Records
---
Amino acid sequence: MDENRRIHVKSVIRERLDGREIVDMLISLQRIYRPEVIGVEESQISKSIGPFLNEAMLSMNEFINLYPLKHMSLDKQARTRSIQARMRAQTVKFDKDLDWYQTFEDECAQFPRAKHDDQVDAFAYLGLMLDKLLEAPTQIELREELYQEELIKSDFLEQGRNGTTGY
């Protein structure tokens, strides 16, 4: 998500993986993208990948901040509402030339009557997760944070002046 709250979908992985393969994929994604958080269904963590993931993170010295996703007793259609609203607002961006995009779009367009809906379900969880997480800082907020850091490094505050007013 960027500072304007637009989601940029860079990749979609659509594969059937066992627990060990899921862990390897998560570690790989962590190394490539360095995300703040990775959302994983809570039951998936406890039942299938938890022990493998802890072992892998320790042995590879690569740690993932997992965000447990809960369906909150919502059916798939109800879970999709957040991401649908973001799509209607045109705040989700895709590179439509990538090889995974057409399959992804087809599955989304055919939901809920399609045979396959795993990608839609994962996409819905993304919307729910983003509703609960912090937004990316704006450029103004980043500049203000940098200014405050520089102020602390300088001796300005040591001169008996107020950090806010400068007097």
---
Amino acid sequence: MIIPNDPLHEGGLRFFGKINASIAHEIRNVLAIINENAGLMKDLTLMSEKGMPVDPARIRNLSEKVLDQVRRADGIVDNMSRLAHSVDDLLKNVDVGECLNFVAVISGRFAAMRGVTLGYDPAPDSVEIMTSPFLLQNLIYLCIDYAMDAAGEGKRIDMSVEKSHGGARVKFRGLESLKDMPEEGQSLIRERSLEILKAGLEADIGEGALTLTLPKEIEMPNHIKEEKP
């Protein structure tokens, strides 16, 4: 979905590129572990060919480690595919809770690097809105990225979704250092969200929380609709 002269276009590309670079890094880690275990299996095979006793349990253990990494890689590729296909539809019914959890998962490496734990409390019922899947993912990522800087000594962000009269609310709690954060970060998120997603962002310094409000449905501006092939 290429949107010339759109204020969200550049930010969307940065988000897409950053997440895919992180996914590539995770896949390299998986391949490195598989390569290491394959080398050990090769060593055991050579030992066996030379008549040296080889414990079958060691081979079984190495095989299980390789299979675990294959499953891990499969999950990583599934996430990459889901992110890529999120640009297929300009507008779509989106489960906000699923979207939040997905963005938390693909942000997991960044959270680990910053020593932050991302906790998600699923809503008892599905909360769906009509919106742009990719732009919503981008917006939630911006909120998580900002929240990680505001997590303070607690280093834990608790996230939740609830239905509101006009759509949905996403809450980010545990932001102990929110009072010390510059307003520019929140302003940047607002600038990138309000024009198309019609979202709002409110900070509660006393509670240490950010609340993202999302409308039940939006309409794409005409200049964006015209770009759809």
---
Amino acid sequence: MATSGSEGRDWVYQRIARTTADIIVDVGPGEGTYSILGRHLRLDAKWYGVEVFTPYIERYHLLQKYDGIFEMSITEFFAPLVPYVIFFGDVLEHLPYEKAVEILGYHLEYASEIMVSIPIVESIQGEVDGNCHEAHLYQWTFEEMEAMLPGCESWRGAMIGRFWWRRNS
């Protein structure tokens, strides 16, 4: 689904307001929720989306919600040369475990901040609306993700776990 649960979003928005990075990258922006609800907190930042499923770009008017859209898989995306925050909002469960670990490792090397949101309850999902990328390929636990992002702040809801990692935190 191009949407996710709202549980804990206020916690994320508090952290968006505190970030000082000039670039915010939203991986798998879906409907553009983080831009819609959080952009006003960082009007000085450039907001970019990375979307693998081309029909979502038009369907959800992503070009109007972001300063730019990279139409590609996160496995093809390379870090900008300036400090950036990257959001993985209900995205990493759509990747095989090994690929998610590799991508997180890459951005731990280059990002100034990382936000992850994942379902922390059993969340079986296949293809949705013709989008094979919507299938859930790995079920993360809260503890696994916390261990992947050493020293991160975390928030545990009934269904969703949220994590915010900062360089030198």
